[in-house]
């Protein structure tokens, strides 16, 4: 296992389109790094450059001590799991698993031992003599996983491996992959993983660290908790979290204390909250997660008066959609705390919890409220 | 996708509807059912008649090969009244010093190298066009496709002169060698279309697994390409077996004649044609193509239909 390093890696296509703009990323040995972002953010391209399936047009990719820019995929010490499994359709599972080892001309008994070990770990022993077309989606993905595992690579690359599975299977595969990663770590052969997904649930639950990308730029690299609690910019804040963070234009003024003004309504910010805001007075983007917005009686101090536009009953919680001064808000209320008398058109107060308020620069989107 | 490892049998919840007995059908339903049956019988009768008309010449050919020469033109019906295999015996010995076996072997000497050469060279060229970027690819591909439209006759004379200079006249080389250089653009085009329908991930996975370009081709692409490749080989087999003009131009020694020329030979040689022996040998000449076709039928149909619809 080895560390993976990307230094100002760029990708410019033949037609001049620049997909990746000088990315710097270090994945520690044994770390589970998730690349996440909306479609078209070049996360897959980045992964494919690491794999050697796309040429690197600038910068350097290093696996361990080796610069791998000009090495063919097979010589990079990587293994990859593809979104559509990419099993070889004409080979039985056993041969699919051992294909890489057979190419290396390993001894037969060694190949057999490795195949058995891997199929044991992934519980696919019963499938060894089947063809890929005889496998279900989950089984095929496990075989694809096995094909990567058997090579004992320096770095594992996953390209949206679970997006072709149904929700239930996806959840169990998620656990299986993270379990496997922990198990390898405990057994003293930690696996360095780069995992691409567009699904933030996968990103948050699986990653040791998450790299959020947008338009070929890295927006933030951090562990899941930091990403959620201290997003570096409005993009990350909006991308991570369900439902999305409320991002609304407001005006910040500092007189006796700091005030946030939304249209004609203002709320005063407590000193400890105002202290960490280092944005200049003027328009800002106010960010507050739906979970951090309390629904109170209209007219309450420290709350914006709003009108309910929709109520979504989710079971364990209720999503309350409301509008205040033309700005849309979503608040999440636990079902047991929800006042069932509330209905569309009612007036409520929305009170942001001061310690969870984020203030972003309007232009750059940078978070100006990190202490 | 359903899990195959899950053995829980699906018990049918809804009992299948018991078929209504005719007595319980309303007159309207009865009428509809009768009309559907009538329609079907008309459809099938028509198909059977037309199918029989189309296949009749072939039936006649086979039947007539067992007739005597005298009976040959007496009746258009295909069934021989006095079946005889004399036609086969006479035909096989031929009017030349060689038996028909020689001509079969000659044909195979052209067909086998040509089919193999076509399969290999067309695959290589198609792989290049379908999977790699290189300078001038578009122009080269356009030229390749343009040769599809070029009539054969145009190149006959220059080719003949070229092969004469090489001293290849009266050998099989003029027919075989071009096939080893992906000479027939049609096959290349067919394989390219088929390859385009194969997802690239498998090849990428193989590259990650450590395969080089050639190993990817051999271990991954060719097995997936097999249906199309079978079609290519089958087409080439049949066309070469049936090729008359090529051997006619280049082969001058009777000993080297392939079947197509040998059949003509028996017509030329005698004044009163031994029709039954000619027909008997024609039946034999057809057999290899038919056998190969039926053996490869499944792959063949898969090959042409996939290449056609997904291209």
UniProtKB/TrEMBL annotation, chain A:
Keyword ATP-binding included in the entry's annotation: yes
Annotated keywords: ATP-binding, Nucleotide-binding, Transport
Record flagged with keyword Acyltransferase: no
Gene Ontology cellular component list: ATP-binding cassette (ABC) transporter complex, substrate-binding subunit-containing; maltose transport complex
Domain of life the protein comes from: Bacteria
ABC transporter domain span: 4-240
GO molecular function, one term: ATP hydrolysis activity
PANTHER family documented for this protein: MALTODEXTRIN IMPORT ATP-BINDING PROTEIN MSMX (PTHR43875), MALTOSE_MALTODEXTRIN IMPORT ATP-BINDING PROTEIN MALK (PTHR43875:SF3)
Family according to the record: Belongs to the ABC transporter superfamily.
Name assigned to this protein: Carbohydrate ABC transporter ATP-binding protein, CUT1 family
Organism of derivation: Poseidonocella sedimentorum
From TrEMBL, chain B:
Entry GO CC: plasma membrane
Alphabetical list of InterPro entries matching this protein: MetI-like (IPR000515), MetI-like_sf (IPR035906)
Compositionally biased tracts (Polar residues): 1-13
Region (Disordered): 1-22
The keyword Transmembrane is assigned to this record: yes
Signal sequence coordinates: none
ABC transmembrane type-1 domain: residues covered: 104-296
Keywords: Cell membrane, Membrane, Transmembrane, Transmembrane helix, Transport
Membrane protein topology class: Multi-pass membrane protein
Gene Ontology biological-process annotations: transmembrane transport
Matching PROSITE patterns: ABC_TM1
Pfam family, one: BPD_transp_1
Membrane-spanning intervals of the chain: 41-62, 103-127, 139-157, 177-195, 216-239, 273-296
Keyword Oxidoreductase: no
Subcellular locations according to the entry: Cell membrane
Family affiliation: Belongs to the binding-protein-dependent transport system permease family.
Protein name from the UniProt record: Oligogalacturonide transport system permease protein
